[in-house]
Amino acid sequence: MTRVIHDSGDGVQKEALDLVSSDVNFPKGHFPDYRIGPNNQIIDPEETHEAVPLKEIVAKETAQLLEQHRRLSVRDLKEKFEKGLSGASKLSEEAKRREAASLDRQVLLKKLRDVLDTLRGRVAGRNRDDAEEAISLVEALAVQLTQREGELIYEKAEVKKLANFLKQATEDARKVAEEERALALAEIEKARAAIEKVEKALQVHDSASSSREKEEIEELKKEVREARRIKMLHQPSKVMDMEFELKALRTLISEKTQLCNQLKKELAMIKRLEEDSSDLFELEGSDTLGSQLHIIPRVDGAPNIANCPIQWYRVISGGTRELISGATKFTYAPEPFDVGRLLQAEMVLNADKIIVQTDGPIENAAGLERYVDSLMKRMDIEFNVVVTQMNGKDYSSNSVHVFHIGKLRIKLRKGWSTKARESYSTTMKLCGSRGGGNAAARAVFWQARKGLSYTLAFETDRDRNAAIMIARKFALNCNVALTGPGDQGT
């Protein structure tokens, strides 16, 4: 039979209890002897006085806790949490040592049981019963050790929970301390800003008061001077009469000087006109295709040429001039036929001819050749235009038309309605608009046939110049020189 000795178990349990509760100091060796009184009140039999009501106890403890909470600062909480964390780490290390010791005991008990099993097989009789009894004792110890290991695991888990809780609490306390520090710094900065504002306000007030005082002093000085002047006026003297005469003389001299300077300028202008009147005017605008040239005075006071006859010319190689028919305005927009040539404007002023010309030959617009090449690759070359004049008269409608340039003919249509469609011939004329105006750089003159002509306004100057160049190339393929009225074909 297997016998279990309970004394050994009590000794192990007592030893384990001592190990677990080594840091605990119980005031008594047994549980306190309380009893429940009326209204679920706890009564201690050792107390001789009457039991205090539970509500008063709870109120008193609540007041103590609130007072203690008010006394504790964030730093004290942090220190307490750190102390608790260090205690938890100590308990964790002690639990690890106990776990290692328990493992060693399990190994020793297993070895002892193996030895007893071997001994039981070799002996007989009473010695065998003693061996079996020893084996049962070892098994009981193993069971107790297993229970103790479970308790240790549970205690270890609790210690870990406590350590994690204390660590989190420490972190929270640190965060609260940092937040409080940040709030305190913010309050300090606000206070500094308020102090600076007050100082600035005081400085502004002081400066304003000082400026007001200065202004008042200046006003007083002005009043004193005005009073003195009035006093002197009421008491005239010879000195004052002389001063008035001097002022009048100075004013007269300044007027005569201004008149003399004006006469000198007029004389110089007249001499300049007699010597060379061409220096009085110049051409304003860029010498490139797509720009607009204007005749403007170079100096102030130049004679008025509003009613003077004007004629534009293009200078061909060798100095020969070619008249541009219809170009008789102050403004002229160069067209592709003018590229590489000088442009001149001749005015007749008081029976004298005044000639102004561009600084250099007209240059082609940047990227115009590439644009023309890309358009000629299309099947249909069309441009959106607006008809401004028809047969020299203003056109009433401002609707958008389509100007179609083909390889054999040119067509003008509005929607499905065709306004004009003519093949290339010697009677067809196409050139830039020569009637002046702000939109001359975007306008063309097209004579479809004799008795039918249009002035068309394109969307851009590039479209206008590209249309003229493409139409002239297609007309040249048909052995037709497409030029403007009065121009000589090349």
List keywords for this structure.
disordered N terminus; alpha+beta; 490 residues; PH-domain like; 7 helices; Helix Hairpins; 8-stranded antiparallel beta sheet; elongated; 4-stranded antiparallel beta sheet
How would you concisely characterize the structure shown here?
GO terms for molecular function: actin binding. InterPro entries: SCAB, SCAB-ABD, SCAB-Ig, SCAB-PH, SCAB_CC. The chain has 490 residues and is of the alpha+beta class.
Please tell me about this protein's structure.
By secondary structure, this protein is of the alpha+beta class. The protein contains 7 helices and 17 strands. It has helices at 6-20, 54-71, 74-122, 126-234, 238-275, 368-376, 461-477; strands at residues 35-36, 42-43, 281-284, 293-297, 310-315, 321-323, 331-332, 342-349, 352-357, 381-390, 393-394, 400-405, 409-414, 417-423, 429-432, 443-449, 452-458. Strands 10, 11, 12, 13, 14, 15, 16 and 17 form an 8-stranded antiparallel β-sheet that branches. Strands 6-5-8-9 form a 4-stranded antiparallel β-sheet, with no helix packed on it. The longest helix is centred in the middle third of the chain and has 109 residues, at 126-234. The model is unreliable at 1-31 (pLDDT under 50). Pfam families: SCAB-ABD, SCAB-Ig, SCAB-PH, SCAB_CC. Residues 54-96 form the Stomatal closure-related actin-binding protein actin-binding domain. This is Stomatal closure-related actin-binding protein coiled-coil domain-containing protein. Residues 380-487 form the Stomatal closure-related actin-binding protein PH domain.
